Write a sequence for this structure.
């Protein structure tokens, strides 16, 4: 198209190239065999590239699946740790709210007794 060998329009809706005009080319019979060989090589190369792309897509999908499984495993571990921390925190809070010295267990200290006088040698 750019070299002016053909004039055509691309029909995207029907996925066709509509050729309006072209410059003819005489091909010798001996050249046809070479052209066929080149086209066959081109087809083999295209098939090889296509297979390579399909292999890469398959590896990418497999890697993605592994990453998704690993992320799900990590998310589950995080949820379990959060639950464990939540339970531990609530138990800790319960212990912190309890009075460690209930009034009925408190005893008279040294200040109200005569024990300190004995310590200092006084009676």
């Amino acid at each position: 198209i750019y070299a002016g060998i053909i004039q055509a329009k691309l029909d995207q809706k029907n996925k066709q190239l509509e050729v309006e005009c072209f410059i003819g080319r005489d091909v010798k019979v001996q050249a046809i065999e070479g052209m066929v060989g080149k086209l066959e090589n081109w087809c083999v190369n295209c098939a090889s590239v296509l297979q390579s792309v399909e292999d890469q897509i398959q590896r990418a999908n497999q890697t993605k699946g592994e990453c998704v499984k690993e992320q799900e495993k990590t998310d589950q571990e995080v949820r379990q740790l959060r639950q464990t921390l939540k339970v531990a925190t609530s138990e800790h809070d319960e212990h912190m709210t309890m009075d460690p010295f209930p009034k009925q267990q408190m005893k008279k200290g040294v200040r109200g007794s005569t024990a300190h006088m004995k310590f200092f040698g006084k009676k």
User: Anything to note?
Assistant: The two ends are 122 Å apart (CA to CA). The CA atoms of residues 29 and 35 lie 10 Å apart. The chain has two helices and two strands.
